[in-house]
Amino acid sequence: MITFENVSKRYLTKQALTDVSISIPTGKIIGLVGSNGSGKSTFMKMIAGLVSPSKGNVMIDQELTSRRTANKVAYLSELDAYYSFFSVKETIHFFATQFQDFDIEKAHEIIDFMEVDINQKVKHLSKGNRGRLKIALTLAREVPIILMDEPLSGLDPMVRDSIVKGLLSFIDLEKQTVIITTHEVTEIEPLLEMVIAIRNGKVLALEDVETIRERDRMRIVDWLKKLYLEEA
Amino acid sequence: MTNWSGLLRKEFRVTRTLLLGVITFDLLVMIGFYLGSAKWEVPYLTAIIGGVLTGLHVFFLPLYLLISLNTEGRNLHLWLHNPQSGARLLGAKILNGLLALLISMGIVSGLALLAYNLETSVFEFPIENVWLFGFYFLTVIVAGSLYMGTWLTFYWTLYQVLKTYIGRWAVLFVLILIGFMSWLSSWFDGTSISKGLSDWGYVQLPSPLNMEVSQREFDLTVSTFPFPIGNVVFDFITLVLIFLLTCWLLDRKVEV
Prior knowledge:
The complex is a heterodimer. Chain A is α/β, with parallel strands linked by helices. Chain A is about 35% helix and about 25% strand. Chain A is built from 8 helices and 10 strands. In chain A, strand 1 and strand 2 (about 15-25) form a beta hairpin. The longest helix of chain A has 14 residues, at about 155-170. Chain A starts with a strand and ends with a helix. Chain B has one domain. Chain B is about 75% helix and about 10% strand. By secondary structure, chain B is mostly helical. Chain B has helices at about 5-40, 45-55, 60-75, 75-80, 85-120, 130-165, 170-190, 190-200, 230-250; strands at about 200-215, 220-230. In chain B, strand 1 and strand 2 (about 220-230) form a beta hairpin. The chains are: A alpha/beta, B mainly alpha. The interface of A and B includes residues 77, 81 and 85 of A.
């Protein structure tokens, strides 16, 4: 279980998170939604142990997160960053050497599914194909927690649709918790089981998507708008 | 392939172009001076240039590490989202840099030695054992480069930590710290504590130099020179502590 205990994070002049306390259940696909600059990326990086709280604790299974939490967490960054000198195949092999849980066959399977040329240099890939490679590298890890920060960013609608459909087949929901941030909420809505709403560094709600649909008779975007209005 | 060899392979690829550039530069300078030396008629010109170029390799590892670390710094999460320890991440860079240093220095010093042996000049260097001289010289260069490289890695990592909190002021802070540490180091060298910690364990090492002092009824050949082992032990412990501190900063304090 991922737990935030009174977590605040302040950068130079900006308060990124304010007194966040939340427990995130395991074995779910969870959407982290909020406007730009609401603290989504900081929230994800804290779980990955790449950012430390200014106050409070972030824990995974009662253990404080740190950079080496990478052995429990697969993190897909929103940034377009790679070792450009590697080919796709070499990138997969490099990741396989670094992460013991990396399933090289699964990586090849996802790359094939996404129709990316395995022999091409990463620097020569289109932005869309680099995005697909990022997704393959993340989903090929057999870890309890998968964090995907804007995985659909920069991909065209056709590609996004095929990736969203493919996501389910490459995730083991018996063992894995997936947290996804995206601006394309509508596109991933069918995947999501729970949703966390965040605004100005504060977590507004953690809710079952089913409850939002049945109780509030709303889609996630409308529910988020309603929360934002109530908070304003 | 193990995670260590995977890291080393990646490090090699990060700086491969740089290494090829340095080797090309080495060869062009050495061959250029060898071809030119016949015209300029300066005794041992190529060997001297080779010696100077070899000496400049003391700056090789710090510069190499700076380039490699800055490459990672542009995509810090890509480097740091890795379960390997900071010691491994940094160790792979330092080892790769040392190997590159040895390759480049081996080429330059090898060509310098070759040029020295090919030279036929009436002028003679006061070096009796060229191999021993070369060994001492290269050891000093490698040790000096490793020393500076380790400190550079520490300052770079400290900068990465500080920039999260003080932004661009982190550069100024680190530069001031470098100045302060240089002053502190030279002040400390003059203290009795420093002498107690490093000025011990003298051994006599064979001298490569041909230093004969001859007067009437007095003949002295300097065949050995005193060397304090304590100095090496002190510097080694300092380096290990700085490296461990750097690894701790990388594992616990650097944010992306």
